[in-house]
Amino acid sequence: MLRNTFLAFNGQDNLVTQKQLFKEVKNTFTIEFWAYPKDIHGIEKESRNGVTNTFNQRFAVTPIFGAYEDRKNSAAGVGVSVGSNGISVYEHTTDHLPPVLVFNGSINDWVHVAVVYQNKIPTLFINGEYIRTGLKSLKKNVVPSGVFGGLDPYGFYNGGLSEIRIWNIAKTQEELGTMMNKELSGGETGLVGYWKLDEGSNSIAKDSTQNNNHGSILGAKWDRYQTKETEETEEIVNQNLNVLFTFFVPSGGVETLNRQRFYALSGRGIKCDFLYSQSGTGLQNEINTSVFIANNDNEIKEIIQKGNYDAIIICSDLLLLQKIRSLGFKNLLIYDNQGLGYNKEYAEDYLKNHAYSVIEKYSDAIMYPKTPHLIEAFEKIFPSKKKYCFHNCFNTNVFKYEPHPKNNQIIIGWVGRIEENKNWKDFLEIGAKLIQKSSDIQLWMFEDDTLSTKEERLSFENKIDELGIKDNLTIYANQPHSKMAEYFSKIGDSGGFLCSTSKVEGFGYAVLEAMVCRCPVLSTDSDGVRSFIKHDITGKFFQLGNIREAVEQGEELLFNLPLREEIRINAIDHINKNFSPEKYAENFISMINDLKR
Q1: Which residues are registered as beta bridge partners of 76?
Q2: For the segment 542-562, what is each residue's pLDDT rounded down to a tens digit?
Q3: CA pseudo-torsion sign 27, 29, 31, 32
Q4: What share of the chain is helix, strand, coil (3-state, %, to 5)?
Q5: H or E segment at 305?
Q6: Exposed (0-12), middle (13-18) or buried (19+): which is 261, by Cβ within 10 Å?
Q7: Which of 265, 272, 515, 537 is an S-S bond match for 571, by CB 3.0 to 4.6 Å?
Q8: Other C-beta atoms within 10 Å of 456: how many?
Q9: Which helix (H) or strand (E) covers residue 133, if one does?
């Protein structure tokens, strides 16, 4: 293998480049990459037409729909499925998804894969050796695809990928064998896409050609090829590691996140403490570690000195970031962002004009969840800063579905603060419309009433009176987190759902918590919840501000019982697989290891 660093895919991830189809590269081209598959893929018979069964495919290169963008089905996107039991080449457009080349054989280590198309005929080479030639395409044009790792519903790759190259020429066997172990400059004749996948951190994979067709890493994580030498010298820092997490107030999603971090990291022997600048309702959620409330410089300095922290994670608080460094803290100082502003446009402006100088000067690195607008903003504003992007976690062994007597009325829930971003007005409008259709519907709203303004509270109460829904509305203020599992379970079993109306979410813990309690979710596409919700698979989306659409989607959740049950089951499986404390601990330790190195 050419490099020690590679990108690891776990069967749910992908890498999406800005150009998802290379439509200017037609019929004659080369796709090559290094791969180490960790799972088998489905084997189908070679065919030149029709739609074959793509179940259990492992698309290292995704066969993108050829009619993408221009809706012309004369072109087919080429994809490559790689499993430990062989390799298949697929072509995809309208009513067309056949495997035009199929190779059955064992792959149990890193191999170099090259698919060479010559006048619409594919040929497969492995480690520079000719393997077989497939069937000539019946389509007018076949073109390379620019999405790696797979895509719903066609199948995801499981394993490592490195050194992806796309050429607009058919490379010869001799050229493949000569160049597969050599790094390219990016300016070679015919090279139209080149992703080395050697960054080792951050969520953008750079295209080393002048085309700058960079890719967004959505779920895959960086890993290193371990030789015996690197295994012996690999630094392990999780033993006796002390970490301090900070935030403004113990309330809402960040307070939930901090408790989840504690469960995940303490299981790996990491001591986690928490510092808040003021008191809050989340302190009722007990946790077996030190939780400090302090905003005085001397108090903070004393906490840091006594804690002997290897790393301090500052969530959002720029003033505290600067202050802790000025108090003499010399170890790792990481800026953490779990959400930014009331709209997606705000994030970039805030970072560029208000936060850049502080983060750049005082932090060693930046970390944030896999929220698209956060990824885009931090990559753009901090191109050279160390950045770490991975999913937050959730302990479903502690917080989970609870059976309770079924409520006789359908319940629609909402969780948030009475403020602009949580968009409570739209929830009341949606609820009122659904109550008009069925007077048995009840609305449950869960809020922290210590965080809203008097003006917002008055507006909220006036809106309830205006809609005439007071008798159908119950407000639960400042509920302990442990109690929420009971509420979500009751909402789900009543035949109702959680409705999330937020404009922007950095992560959206309430949505995740509802899903693990078998409570289906209807949500705006508020960015952070994309990690949880796949429309009509693990939940439902509606367009922000479109009350009519929200009501229609809500009615389907209420009355389409087969779909509802499928969503409830899929949601739990999705959370368990992708947001485990074990994965979070691995990612966090890997981040600290990388920074220590």
Answers
A1: 142
A2: 999 999 999 999 999 999 999
A3: positive
A4: 30, 30, 40
A5: helix 297-307
A6: buried
A7: 515
A8: 15
A9: strand 129-133
